[in-house]
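Lab notebook, bench 4. The sequencing result for the construct came back, and we need a structural model before the next group meeting so we can plan mutations. Quick request posted to the team channel:

Model the 3D structure of this chain.
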Amino acid sequence: MVNQNLTIENANIGRGGFRNFAGERSQFNPTGKRTFTVLLDEATGCSLEQQGWHIRWREPRDEQDDRMALLTVEVKFGDYPPKIMLITGSNKTPLDETNIAILDSAEIANCDLVIRPYNWNVRGNEGTKAYLKTMYVTLEDDDFGGKYKDF
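Done. Here's the predicted structure in token form:
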């Protein structure tokens, strides 16, 4: 059972199949379920798994690499919506369910997260699900970012 929020600075949330902020239907995801995956090193993954977080493991592609830990985080905009801020240059824009999908293809320079645990118990089975509480996402600057920062 996990009782404290998890704070991760400079989180690696990957690209491709690791982000589904739009909630698009896929082979492993029903329509409307918004998720993303935090990629963690093996030591951090082991520590979080011992604390009770649900960690999946991806085996290394090369013999010299360590296995990678994966923490899937759900994004829900119900009774307790997350606070999500998009940072571009000196601008901060709050994101909600109408515009969060832009993160699926964004070039992210930095991502800081607070994840809240939800401990569940159903018919003797139990676990901890990860929900997004707070996210600050800084986008990579492009060639014209400085030129148009005031618009």
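The chain has a mean pLDDT of 90.
Will bring this to the meeting.
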